[in-house]
User: Fold these one by one.
Assistant:
Number 1:
Amino acid sequence: MNYFDEGKHAEDYIHMSRKYDGRDLIPPLQTHLTEGSSLLELGMGPGKDLDLLSQYYTVTGSDSAQTFLDIYREKHPHADVLLLDAVTLDTKRRFDCIYSNKVLMHLTRNELERSFRRQADILNPGGIAFHTFWRGDKEEIFDGLRFIYYQPESLNSLIGPTFSVIDTQIYKESAKDDSFYIILKKKD
């Protein structure tokens, strides 16, 4: 069972994240992604970022927890959402961008490396990946859920040869310099 398919975990997450969204991430994304481009959000949760992104892009939401897809579809019955895990990304569809906000940090390092390879497979030529992570050098399990903290440079060995890093920036989400985003471009 997916961690967030347990009702209490999904409710706790929705409550905890109610004050956070990715609105500050849109301007750096717009620097590298043309308005109207196709975008797949990994780990959409309750859909706050998906709603913001839909103002600029043709969005598809995804999550590995059916609970979050059901919650989102209640308010948006015609939404384009997929049940996908962030490692296998089992879809034949292609996108101009893959986006995640503090999602890939739940994967093991091996799973993250596999995810990056699979992301390259489903990106259109020249496509980009935009991901955020908690910044640090530790791994912890909280209430049964894994969190791996990275430094931007520590991702280089996991990204693989199919991507180039085109931008990275450290920013504050909860505390000074606690987060960073990384933007990757698929090599042709």
Number 2:
Amino acid sequence: MHVGRKLVTRFNRKIAVRLAAVAAALVAMFSTASPAHAAVYSGGTYNIVHTQNGYCLDSNSSFDVYMLPCNGGNYQKWKVTLQSPPCGEGECTVQITLQDVATGYCLDSNGTSLYTHVCGSAYQAWDGTNVMDTLEQAVTSVCLDGSGTSVYVLACNGGAYQNWNEVS
């Protein structure tokens, strides 16, 4: 009887270990969203994070825009204001403005240069999806792009360096 109980216990442990491994794999598969799909536009204040290097969009009072390692400072916090109605379920396009919390200036571009400027221009409207992969300027149709610590605008190409994420 005792030998049979050991066998059943080993069998139950093996099953339990396998079930736990399967359960962990399923949880990881269904609950791990890519960083670019972690947030949904609803307005608010966020860090805008480059998905390739994890750096935050940053600016200064001289109208410069760049990326630096995220530090929690107000120069890296951006007030996201919806210019179009919020999205419902599923992926949809929204139009937003991004205003630097520290300077009060909005992310702006003339189609070739990227900078911040006093808010209120049509060139400060950016089209994104509610999962914020890319940010395309509404007027000029160029995308926010970056590499290293440099941030700029380029023709939208679907490349990884044009992927951004909003993080609270």
Number 3:
Amino acid sequence: MNPKQWHIVKKLFHEAVDMSDKERKQFLKRKCEGMPDMKDEVLSLLAAKETTGPVDHPPESLKKEILHDIHTDNPEGTRIGAYRLIKELGRGGMGRVYMAERADDQFDKIVALKLLKTGIRTDMNGKFWPD
């Protein structure tokens, strides 16, 4: 999609976002006639707006939801987001790195997942201090 098309998609999205489903369907049929890819892109953005994910929750609830089980000596098998920890690959001062697999059946993927230690913060100069 080129920048001009993207500008149109954003404009259509902002116009359609507060419409009822019926109004939206008629609006997009009229505005995207002969441009099914543009209509699909607008519909995709509208669907994404209605979907909640991890970034839609306050950080504290995300921490409780995802990270509560990983502070054990053996977190293998723990699920974090879309991934399940398989085994520890290494550790250092900032945290641990695990081999993980995609666990949501969307992809068959093995990744390295780094889990940072909680309670570590840095100042503007990169110096560390505990929570």
